[in-house]
Amino acid sequence: MSWSTRLTIPRRQPGEVAKARPTPGDHRAQLEKVRQVSMDRYEGAYRELARA
Question: Is 44 part of a structural domain of the chain?
Answer without folding.
Answer: yes
